[in-house]
Amino acid sequence: MYIATSHLPNPWLDNPLPTSVLQPNIEITLHKFNCHYIPEPGTYPYRLDTDGRDAAVHFYEMRGVGHTPRDAGYPGDVYVKVKPGMCELWAMLKIGEDGARQWVRWVPEEKEKIVHPHLKLRYLWCSTRGEVSWYSPYVFEALAKHENPNGTREAGELIAEMLRIDAERTLTSKRKDGSDENPTRNKRQKMGPTLHTGCVSTPTT
Questions:
Q1: Which residue has the higher pLDDT, 47 or 67?
Q2: How many domains does the chain have?
Q3: What distance in Å separates the CA atoms of residue 192 and residue 194, rounded to the nearest whole number?
Q4: Alpha helical stretches, state H, the chain
Q5: In which residue ranges is the amino acid composition biased (Basic and acidic residues) (predicted)?
Q6: DSSP 160-182
């Protein structure tokens, strides 16, 4: 079911997979989270998928060893730098009155928490449960208190732990369904070099 919060298409579902000329080897995975309220018309710029009173909000998680790709990403997407010893997490936001897109670096501090660019009650957190997502205030606070209780852990430490848990979970899942016999199956999609960078020019917001 769709809700007409906007006449613009949902870029994560309706547009081609984004690509980057500057970072041709980054990997990209489509994620979503359920927002337990329907945003008011005009507050969310794209068409939303709904299920009852919940709205499914999508975002891309990109991973690479280099800097954030300046030619890829929609507001709400995240980029994980996976270089050993230099792990970082970035979020694509809309900055300033003109709404210019910009990557902003995540730090695990309450006073500097990153708010979703289109949803006021969703905050970015890198969870040592093995995932990065936009969480409700209650879940955000619970994760922060449990995973960084004294506020002393560095972002790189949390990100490295998240990556380790995610890799272990992926390996376990492959062993259970037998997909480890075919190493090319169920891989994250690797973005190859291309001249198409439609994620920068569309949609118009």
A1: 67
A2: 1
A3: 6
A4: 11-14, 137-147, 155-177, 198-201
A5: 170-184
A6: HHHHHHHHHHHHHHHHHHTGGGS
Measured in degrees and rounded to the nearest 5, phi and psi for residue 161 equal: -65, -40
- Structural domain includes residue 199: no
> Which residue's structure tokens are 């936001």?
93
Say whether 24 sits in a helix, a strand or coil: coil
Using CA atoms, how far apart are residues 111 and 175, in angstroms rounded to an integer? 41
Query: Hey, what are 2's tokens?
Result: 């769709």
Token pair 């050993």 in the structure block, residue: 84
Residue 60 neighbours by CB distance under 10 Å: 21
Residue keyed to tokens 């769709």: 2
Structural domain of 154: 27-172
pLDDT at position 111 is 84
Domain membership of residue 105 (yes or no) is yes
- For 27-60, how does the pLDDT look when each residue is reduced to its tens digit (9 = 90+)? 999 999 998 877 776 778 888 877 777 889 999 9
Cα Rg of the chain (Å, integer) = 17
> Residues 153-161: what's their mean pLDDT?
96
| Average confidence (pLDDT) over 97-124 | 91
Which residue is listed with tokens 């939303």? 48
Q: What is d(CA 107, CA 158) in angstroms, rounded to the nearest whole number?
A: 10
pTM of the predicted structure, to 2 decimals: 0.81
**Residue the block writes with tokens 């006073």:** 111
Count of helix runs (H) and strand runs (E) in the chain: 4, 10
Would you say residue 72 has pLDDT above 50? yes
Amino acid at 104: V
Q: In this structure, is residue 17 part of a structural domain?
A: no
